[in-house]
Amino acid sequence: xxxxxxxxxxxxxxxxxxxxxxxxxxxxxxxxxxxxxxxxxxxxxxxxxxxxxxxxxxxxxxxxxxxxxxxxxxxxxxxxxxxxxxxxxxxxxxxxxxxxxxxxxxxxxxxxxxxxxxxxxxxxxxxxxxxxxxxxxxxxxxxxxxxxxxxxxxxxxxxxxxxxxxxxxxxxxxxxxxxxxxxxxxxxxxxxxxxxxxxxxxxxxxxxxxxxxxxxxxxxxxxxxxxxxxxxxxxxxxx
Amino acid sequence: xxxxxxxxxxxxxxxxxxxxxxxxxxxxxxxxxxxxxxxxxxxxxxxxxxxxxxxxxxxxxxxxxxxxxxxxxxxxxxxxxxxxxxxxxxxxxxxxxxxxxxxxxxxxxxxxxxxxxxxxxxxxxxxxxxxxxxxxxxxxxxxxxxxxxxxxxxxxxxxxxxxxxxxxxxxxxxxxxxxxxxxxxxxxxxxxxxxxxxxxxxxxxxxxxxxxxxxxx
Lengths: 239, 217
Fold this sequence. Notes:
The structure holds two protein chains of two kinds.
Chain A: H1 8-16, H2 21-33, H3 35-53, H4 62-81, H5 84-101, H6 115-123, E1 130-133, E2 136-140, E3 148-155, E4 164-165, E5 170-176, E6 179-181, E7 184-186, E8 191-194, E9 199-200, E10 203-204, E11 210-217, E12 222-223, E13 229-230, E14 235-236
Helix pairs in contact in A: 1-3, 2-3
Chain B: H1 2-27, H2 32-46, H3 49-68, H4 77-94, H5 105-123, H6 136-139, H7 154-166, H8 170-181, H9 186-193, H10 197-216
Helix pairs in contact in B: 2-3, 3-4, 4-5, 7-10, 8-10, 9-10
């Protein structure tokens, strides 16, 4: 049972196409697991449909309209005349190649991820896990991100992540296992937004490793006191 | 966590509404959207070019109108014409997968148009974050497949949404239109209108609440 959802504002931005790419990715992953948000999204898409149906028609002259239609049908004819078999064969061999080079990570934690996350994994066949702290590993995704960083995080069973705050807004979605913090327990599909400055200390459940997909805003290269790159997810608070 | 608790509550309510909705629907009259749905089905099943031409002459001017309403940016007529070509090309190709039980025709075409717009922005570099491993359609799925949903009767709820939008207070319908038609995020709207972000958010939420109650009724 999913208890934590993106709010209506974020869903509406996603439905209307104005939500940034990285956040949209996590929202899509959530919606694929959450029937409640999927049906809310239908309603939100319906608003777009109603606005389209009610928009002020901009007519072009009759001949222009006919030209536009002819141009379109020409494109469609060309598209359909293109040797389908060749195209299909090329697509099939590309898929075979992709499948061959892509191996689903054997880990059971990847076995039931939503389709969009599967696509992400296909695009990042070699996840490079690095240890951020005891019990916490991160694999950043190869993206051309400037404003956001997308990563998988895994917390080993029972591990407590060092208390940290967030330099930028962070969105986390649980994919496998569960973790808890002072506010509650989060299980697969749960969608959490942490605003900059919020402090929390997640702990994975005892019996299982926990896998999350997360997006952190403005991953400016922060240099820690040890001279290495410090992830905003783990900007330690001096105690 | 308060907002979440409320969300869950609404969710339960939502399930109830699905039932009452489908009962009302059986008695409901055919709406105009059904006509477009039927044409889309003809295009999908029989590759019916006449049906497609009728869809084109209805939706091309609407797509342009929707696009022209965009504040300032890319409202060049060529861009709108290009968008029409792109959207209607996809409509032809995807029509076999159109399912009128899952979306009203105009909603289905809206999602295709939205994806074309996102794709165009991406190509123009306005979505600098887009990476090549994902297509727009991986994130904004318009395939209508495998969604474990109880679907509302679409044309009926579409009509309700349409009349709901008309009855919104102007300051609410204004932000909704800016979001959808101009493709603006809440923070862009707040900058443009000189309103605090919180105000934009709450107007959107109020508008959605009203629209939801219209659908339910």
